[in-house]
Amino acid sequence: MVSNMRKLLPSFASASSWFEVYATFSTFTMLLRTAFNDLIPHQIRSFLVSKLEAFFHSQPNNQISLRINEFWHDRYNGNEVFLAAQEYLPTRITSTKFTWKLDENSDENSRDSWKQAFVLTFDERNRERVLDRYIPHVLKTYEAMKSEKRILEIHSRRSYAWTYWELSHPATFDTLALDPELKQAVVDDLDRFLKRKEFYKKVGKPWKRGYLLYGPPGTGKSSLIAAIANHLKFDVYDLDLSCINSDSDLMEAMRDISGSSILVFEDIDCNKEVHDRSKPKQDSDIEKERGEGSGKFSLSNLLNFIDGLRSGGGEGWVIIFTTNHKEKIDPALLRPGRMDMHIHLSFLRGRAFPIMASNYLGIEGHHPLVEEIKGMLEKTQVTPAVVGEHLIRNEDPDLALEALVEFLKQQMKETQ
Ligand SMILES: Nc1ncnc2c1ncn2[C@@H]1O[C@H](COP(=O)(O)OP(=O)(O)OP(=O)(O)O)[C@@H](O)[C@H]1O
C-alpha cells in the first residue's frame, strides 16, 4: 500500500486535500476504518502525514485547512468522517483552536451541486495532532453518539455501491408477534452473543453469529431483522446477491462493511450458487463453485468469506440468511458455525395474536373477541402481514376485531 502511495502521490500535486487524495485509493475505506480504530501503525501514519503535507490549503497566519467531502468519488460512497463531523459539531462550542465551516455548492445547476464538504481550519503546528488524534476522536465520539442515540444505519447494495440511510424500522421484540418461546429463545441467544465477546476472544474465535430465517412471505423476516438490529444496536448491511457478478465483486462488497454489523443475504435461495449440491450437476457448475471461468461468485468463496470473518477491534458480526425455501439451500451453508440458529417464521398462531391486538388496536388484557380469534388462528393458516392488513383498516377496535373474525371464518370455510 505504501509503495502504491509513493507512486501516486506526485501525480496529485495540485489535489485540494488529503482526503481527496486518500479517496483515490481503492483501499481507503480500510485505511479509514483502521484509522478509526487507532490501529494505523505509527510509522505509516507519520509517512502519510509527511507525504501529504502538500495537499493542505495554505492560509495566512500559518493556518491550514482540511477539506472533508461528504462523498468520495461519487455520490454513492459517503464519507464517514463527514457524517461524524456533522453529528459531532452541534455538540461543541466553537473552539479557538479549530474552525469548522460547511462548504456547500450553491450553484444548483452545476453538475456538482450534490457536493458539499466541511472545511476544518487550524494552525499548521497542529497538523499531526489533527490527523492522529482529533479526527479519530471525532469519529469515536460519533460512534458513541450513534449508539447512545441509536442512530442505526441500513446499507443496501443493489448495484456496484452501498447506499445507506437511517434505519427507522420500528420493530422490536416487544412488537413482534411470535410464539413467546421462540421469541425468548432468540432474545436469549442474542444476549448470550453480546455477553460473550470476551469469551470468543479467549478461545480465539471470531465474534460472530449466524441466523437462518425461513418461512413464507409476510411472516416477519424483515421485521425480525429490524428487531435484532434495534436490540443489538448494530447497523444492517443488506446485500442482494443477484447483483454480485464475480468473486471479486463479492470481495469488494464485503471490504466496505464495518464490524458491529448485521450482514443480511435476503432470499438466498434465489441464487443457484447456493443450491443443494447433493443434486447431480454439470461440469460447468463444478467450475463455477471453484470460481474458475465463472461470471458469478462461487459458493466456496462465500463460505470462505463467512468462515474467515474476523472481529477486528472487538467488533461483532451477525450474518442472516433469509429464505422461503430452506430445503433448496446447500447444507454446507446451514451448518452450525455458519448458521447457528434456524428460526422458523410461520403463520400467526393464537398465542402471538394479543401482541398484534395491542400494537394495532391498543387492546391490553382480556377481550372476548381476542379470545375467539386466538382459537380461530389455531385452525387457519394466515400470516401476520395479512392479519395486520385487516386490523389497520378500522380505527374502532371492536369493529376491527369483528371484521377479522368474519375474514377468518371465510378462510376456514375455504380450507375445509
Ligand atoms: N411476526 C410479526 N409480528 C408483527 N408484525 C408482523 C409480523 N410478520 C409480519 N408483520 C407485519 O407484516 C408486514 C410484512 O412483514 P415482513 O416484511 O417483516 O415479512 P417478511 O417475512 O420479511 O416478508 P417477505 O418475505 O415478503 O419479505 C410488516 O409490515 C409487519 O408489520
Task: Give an overview of the whole structure.
The protein has 416 residues and is of the alpha/beta class. It has three domains: 2-149, no CATH class; 165-344, Rossmann fold; 350-415, no CATH class. The protein contains 17 helices and eleven strands. The protein has helices at 2-8, 18-23, 28-36, 42-51, 80-88, 127-149, 180-195, 197-202, 221-232, 247-255, 283-290, 299-308, 331-334, 353-361, 368-377, 384-392, 397-415; strands spanning 57-58, 63-69, 98-104, 116-123, 153-157, 162-166, 208-214, 235-239, 261-265, 317-323, 341-344. A hairpin with a 4-residue loop joins strand 1 and strand 2 (63-69). Helix 5 (80-88) crosses helix 6. It is globular. The N and C termini lie far apart (68 Å).
Secondary-structure element order, N to C: HHHHEEHEEHEEHHEHEHEHHEHEHHHH
Q: Characterize the largest beta sheet: strand count, sense, and whether it forms a barrel.
A: 7 strands, mixed
Q: What is the top-level CATH class of the largest domain? A: Alpha Beta
Could you say which structural class the secondary elements and strand pairing correspond to?
alpha/beta
What is the CATH topology assignment of the largest domain? Rossmann fold
Which strand order spans the largest sheet, edge to edge or round the barrel? 6-5-8-9-10-7-11
Number of strands: 11
Arithmetic mean pLDDT? 75
CATH A-level architecture of the largest domain: 3-Layer(aba) Sandwich
Count up the domains.
Answer: 3
Radius of gyration: 26 Å
| Tertiary shape | globular
What low-confidence regions span 5 or more consecutive residues with pLDDT below 50?
Answer: 1-55, 283-295
Question: Could you tell me the strand content as a percent range?
Answer: 5-15%
